[in-house]
Design goal:
Elements (H helix, E strand, L loop, with lengths): L1 E6 L5 H13 L4 E5 L15 E4 L6 H12 L3 E3 L2 H6 L2 H10 L7 E4 L22 H8 L3 E5 L9 E3 L2 H8 L7 E5 L5 E8 L3 E6 L18 H18 L3 E9 L2 E6 L9 H4 L1 H21 L11 H7 L8
Parallel strand pairs: 1-2, 1-3, 3-4
Antiparallel strand pairs: 5-8, 6-7, 6-8, 9-10, 9-11, 11-12
Length: about 325
C-alpha cells in the first residue's frame, strides 16, 4: 500500500477534503492521511510515497524532514530543495529571460545591518546607492515587499521618494524589493497543479480578504489561452507541482505580479466553493499520479527546466 500524506498547519478544510477525496476514489494500492511524525533519523525513509507540503515554509523542522524523506524516495509536492532556494526576486529575474511580462523590480539591501555584521562587511556596496537611478527606473507609485515572500506581510504602497525613505526605515533587517505598480484593469489568480492543470480565477486584491474572489472579469478566449500559456511556462521553468500565479492586466497585457506561492491559499471559506472543488479534485488526482509513478529509493521530485537546462548547459532563453 502506497500512502499519500498531507503535511499541514492550522488549515483544516483543504487537508481534510483532499484526504477524503483520495480515499473516496478507492484507487488500488493507494491511501491518504495526515502525516504523522514520531522521529526523524538520518537516511531512514518515511512511511509515505507522496507528501503534499502545506507548512514547511514556516517550520524549519518540517523542511528538514521533507528533504530526508525525498532523499529516500518520497515524492514531495513541492520539491523542498528548490523551494528552499527559490525567492520572489529570482522569479522576476527568470521571467525576464523566458518572455513573461513582469513589473520593473529592483532588490535593496536591508535598512539595518544583519546580525554579526558591521559596516566593514559591506565594503563592496557603494554608499549611497544610486537612488535616483533606482527611482527613475521603477517610478512611483510603487510597492515595496520582502524579496523572499511572506504573503501580504510587510508590504508597502509608496507614493514618492520621501514616502519610500520613511517606510524603508521601518523594515529592519528585511531585504526588500521595490516594484513598479501595475495599475490594472483586470486581475487573476491562477492555480497550476502538476504543470498541466490550470484554473484561472478572477480576483480583486483591493477587496477585503473574504471578498477577493468576488470579481466579474470576463476575459475572451484569446486572453484566457495566453494567460494559461504564461502560467504553464512559469511553472515549467520553476518546477512547482502546486503553485499560484497572479496576473495583472494593464492595457491588455497580463503581467506576472506574484508567482512564488508553493503553499497557496486553498481554504473553502476564502476561495469559494467552485474553486475549492476544482483544487481538491485536481490535487487529489495529481497526488495519485505521483504515488503510482513513485519508485522507492529513487529521486521522485519534480525539477524545473531552469535547473535541468543549467545542469545540461542548454540554452535557457525563449527570446
Amino acid at each position: 500500500m502506497k500512502k499519500i500524506g498531507i503535511l499541514h498547519g492550522k488549515e483544516r478544510s483543504f487537508p481534510e477534503a483532499i484526504v477524503e477525496r483520495i480515499n473516496q476514489k478507492k484507487v488500488a494500492g493507494i491511501s491518504a492521511e495526515s502525516v504523522v511524525i514520531d522521529k526523524v533519523m538520518q537516511g531512514e525513509p518515511s512511511d509515505y510515497a507522496v507528501i503534499i507540503d502545506r507548512i514547511s515554509q514556516d517550520v524549519p523542522f518540517y523542511r528538514a524532514y521533507l528533504k530526508n524523506a525525498a532523499l529516500c524516495g518520497t515524492a514531495v509536492i513541492n520539491n523542498p530543495f528548490w523551494w528552499s532556494a527559490d525567492e520572489k526576486f529570482f522569479n522576476n529575474c527568470l521571467a525576464t529571460k523566458i518572455a513573461v511580462p513582469v513589473p520593473k523590480t529592483v532588490i535593496l539591501p536591508s535598512r539595518d545591518l544583519p546580525d554579526d555584521t558591521s559596516d566593514e562587511s559591506f565594503s563592496n556596496l557603494k554608499y549611497p546607492l544610486d537612488w535616483r537611478g533606482i527611482f527613475d527606473y521603477v517610478g512611483f507609485p510603487a510597492y515595496m515587499k520582502p524579496f523572499a515572500g511572506g504573503g501580504w506581510k510587510n508590504v508597502y504602497k509608496l507614493e514618492s521618494m520621501d514616502d519610500f525613505f520613511e517606510k524603508h526605515s521601518e523594515t529592519g533587517q528585511l531585504v526588500m524589493m521595490l516594484q513598479e505598480e501595475i495599475i490594472f484593469e483586470e486581475y487573476y489568480r491562477c492555480y497550476c497543479i502538476g504543470g498541466k492543470y490550470v484554473r484561472i480565477m478572477p480576483y480583486e486584491p483591493r477587496n477585503p480578504h473574504h471578498l477577493r474572489y468576488v470579481a466579474d472579469f470576463k476575459p475572451d478566449a484569446e486572453r484566457l489561452a495566453y494567460m494559461e500559456e504564461l502560467v504553464l511556462r512559469i511553472n515549467k521553468f520553476l518546477g512547482y507541482d502546486f503553485n499560484t500565479v497572479e496576473l495583472a492586466v494593464r492595457d491588455g497585457v497580463p503581467y506576472a505580479i506574484d508567482f512564488c506561492n508553493p503553499a497557496p491559499d486553498a481554504e473553502r471559506t476564502s476561495v469559494g466553493e467552485e474553486n475549492f472543488e476544482w483544487v481538491v479534485e485536481n490535487a487529489a488526482n495529481y497526488a495519485i499520479e505521483k504515488a503510482q509513478a513513485q519508485v522507492p529509493n529513487e529521486d521522485n521530485l519534480t525539477w524545473g527546466e531552469y535547473i535541468k537546462r543549467s545542469s545540461n548547459k542548454q540554452k535557457l532563453f525563449f527570446i
